[in-house]
Each structure stands twice: as structure tokens, then as C-alpha cells.
Design goal:
alpha/beta; 8-stranded parallel beta sheet; 11 helices; binds zinc ion; about 10% strand; 8 strands
């Protein structure tokens, strides 16, 4: 019997804090959590605290020596070992780093367990989605790869097919790396082209190794891609792959840094298109994975203007109470935003682009169009490996 959608939350995740002047400001998590409450959504979900991921869980993805290095940096940040990516500009060491990172990982693992055991149909961890962490190194603001750990835990529980869809503006390189040789996991990442953005991977030609050939899928979008192109690319690639792969669980990563206001990347996607992809992921989970859906956060550096609204939409969709884009944001939340950040908060749950429309791939494509070239490159690289027409 599956109960209400679970929202994984423990105030202590805000301890994942690289310090002043780092773009990943935990205020984005605080403000998301309070916007969820301000719109009454926490009455629609079960808010659940998860167990911290322990050593044996972390070891499902991460190397023992790396975990040791994180623990050491967590105790003594000044002694962080940069050969593990710790104590760097992207991943400065801080006291409590291991504990905060392992808690976020525990939330994603707990979400996956609850979904697989049928305790809930959907679970959301917007503190998660830390997709750049590698088995043996921190990278790109990510210490432990909660997304890969959730997938690995599902495999450990006996799941035979997990699909991971990553729509963060950056390539989901750590998750891809973790399952590069594992045909049980289909990883699909839509991101800004590696030529113009970190981590400079995610080329269409990256398709997986050996028996897992065709289980890694990468759509490298031209800088500047907007709503119509982003949605067109998503729908030209993802549904067909899921129909073929038939996942038992769908894990999705919803980095909000595709947004036109995001300071760290160069796509031009609106909140309304992000919401449309969240709705699509929800529908795809029901269509192809018996509704089993684990939804994660990810990047997002417009921490006031974009992230809280985007992930509040995600929670509403997962809860079966989608927030109407025209909804006005309660003044109480805007006051909290001002008190915490000295910035004015947004007024509405939309960028004014709803409904968003796009042209369907089945209706034809233009070989001279850069977006269509990106989609074609992906379909040609990977679809035949899965026995699908490019
Ligand atoms: Zn990102």
C-alpha cells in the first residue's frame, strides 16, 4: 500500500555549505522548503527524515580511500587533500562536510528504498542531485553522489532496470561514470554543450562500455537553447528510450540551472518549461515505471529568483497537487526572502510563458538547424545500439 508522496527533509541538510561567496548557497534549500510550506504543499506530502548514509551505503559508489579523505577534511578542513578534489575552489572543505553530504545521500537512498518497497509512489529530495561527484573524487560542488547512490541501492535491492534522467544544465557525469559498464542502468543527460560548459563531457558519442553500450545517452544542446528547443529535444529522445528500456524505477534530476537567469550557464529556459519537463517526468514514471518515481534537485544558482519556485513546482507535481503557474506567492514568503537575502522575491509562480509549446520531432526536422543537429547526433549515436531507428 503506497501512502502519500514523501518529501525528504531534515533541516541539517543546510549544513551542506561551502561558505560565503560560493554559488551553491544553502539558502536555496531553506527558501524552497518554506515556499513549499507557504503554498500549503506540506499538508499534501509526508515530510520524512532519512537516516544518514553509512559507510556500506557510500561504498556502493565511492572508494574507501575517498570516503576517508572526506572524513578527514570534515574534521580538519585545513588538511583537505586536493588530490581528491577536496579543498579546491569548487569544493572547499568545511567542518561537518562528511556529515552533511552523507545526510543528503541518505535522503536520496531513503527515497529510493521507500519507492521500491511501495511505502510511497513518489519521493522528492530537492537537496539531492549532486551528480558530479565521482567514485574517488569531489567535483563541481558535489561530494557524495546521492543520485548514483540511490540508483546503486535500487540495484542492491534487486531492481533490474533503473532509468536516470538528468535535465540539469551540466552533464550528469558522475552518475554516467558510476554505471558506465552496467546495462541495468540507462542514464540520459540533456545539458549545455561540453564545448561551452563544465564538466566538458557529455558528448553524444559517450554511449557506455562493453555490454552496456547504448545505456548512456547524451544530448549536448547549443548555448542559448530556449524553451521550445529544450522541450523539443527532451521529447525527441526521452520517451522513446523509456518505452524501449521499460524501467522499474525512474530517477530524475531537476537542476534548475537551465534557467535564463542562472549566472553559471548559458541556456535560456524558463520556469514554465522546467515545470513542463517535471510534469512530463511524472507522466513518464506512470507510463513506463508503474509510477515509481524518485525526483531530485541539482544545480541552480539563481537562489532566490528561480530555485525555490522550480522545486516547489516539482513537489506540487509529485504530490498530485500541481501549483497553477498563475499563483501569486504569499507575502509572508517574500518577507522571509528579504530578511534572509536583502533581495526582493518573485511575485508569481510563473515567468509568464505558460503554456509552453514546442514542435514534435515526429513532424519532421531541419538538418540545418543547430538544435535539430544536436538531437540527431544523439539519436544516431545511441538509438541503433538499442535497436531503435535513429
Ligand atoms: Zn548544474
Amino acid at each position: 500500500m503506497s501512502g502519500r508522496t514523501q518529501l525528504m527533509w531534515d533541516e541539517a541538510v543546510t549544513g551542506y555549505d561551502f561558505g560565503r561567496d560560493h554559488p551553491m548557497d544553502p539558502v536555496r534549500l531553506v527558501l524552497t522548503r518554506s515556499l513549499v510550506a507557504a503554498l500549503g504543499l506540506d499538508r499534501e506530502v509526508a515530510v520524512v527524515e532519512a537516516k544518514t548514509a553509512g559507510e556500506s551505503t557510500l561504498r556502493l559508489v565511492h572508494r574507501e580511500d575517498y570516503i576517508g579523505a572526506v572524513r578527514a577534511a570534515s574534521k580538519d578542513p585545513a588538511a583537505a587533500d586536493q588530490s581528491y578534489g577536496l579543498g579546491t575552489t569548487d569544493d572547499p572543505a568545511f567542518a561537518g562536510m562528511h556529515e552533511a553530504s552523507a545526510l543528503i545521500a541518505g535522503q536520496s537512498v531513503g527515497a529510493a528504498e521507500a519507492v521500491w518497497r511501495g511505502e510511497t509512489l513518489h519521493a522528492v529530495n530537492f537537496a539531492g542531485g549532486l551528480h558530479h561527484a565521482m567514485p574517488g573524487a569531489a567535483s563541481g560542488f558535489c561530494v557524495y553522489n546521492d543520485a548514483a547512490l540511490a540508483v546503486a541501492r535500487l540495484l542492491e535491492l534487486g531492481v533490474e532496470r533503473v532509468a536516470y534522467i538528468d535535465v540539469d544544465v551540466h552533464h550528469g557525469d558522475g552518475v554516467q561514470a558510476a554505471f558506465w559498464e552496467d546495462p541495468r542502468v540507462l542514464t540520459v543527460s540533456l545539458h549545455e554543450h561540453p564545448r561551452t560548459l563544465f564538466p566538458q563531457t557529455g558528448w553524444p558519442e559517450e554511449t557506455g562500455a562493453d555490454s552496456a553500450q547504448g545505456s548512456a545517452v547524451n544530448v549536448a544542446l547549443p548555448a542559448g537553447t530556449g524553451d521550445e528547443g529544450w522541450l523539443r529535444a527532451f521529447h525527441a529522445v526521452v520517451p522513446e528510450l523509456l518505452a524501449d528500456f521499460r524501467p522499474q524505477v525512474l530517477v530524475t534530476q531537476h537542476g534548475a540551472d537551465t534557467h535564463f537567469e542562472d549566472p553559471l550557464a548559458h541556456l535560456a529556459v524558463s520556469l514554465d518549461a522546467q515545470r513542463a519537463v517535471q510534469v512530463a517526468c511524472h507522466e513518464l514514471a506512470h507510463e513506463y515505471a508503474d509510477g515509481r518515481w524518485v525526483a531530485l534537485g541539482g544545480g541552480g544558482y539563481a537562489v532566490v529568483e528561480v530555485v525555490p519556485r522550480s522545486w516547489t513546482h516539482l513537489v506540487g507535481i509529485a504530490a498530485g497537487k500541481p501549483v497553477d503557474p498563475t499563483t501569486m506567492i504569499p507575502e509572508s514568503w517574500r518577507q522571509e526572502v528579504y530578511a534572509r537575502t536583502r533581495q526582493p522575491g518573485p511575485m508569481r509562480m510563473t515567468d509568464g510563458r505558460s503554456p509552453v509549446t514546442w514542435a514534435s520531432w515526429e513532424d519532421g526536422y531541419d538538418p540545418a538547424d543547430r538544435l535539430d543537429q544536436a538531437v540527431l547526433a544523439t539519436r544516431r549515436a545511441v538509438f541503433p545500439l538499442r535497436g531503435l531507428l535513429p
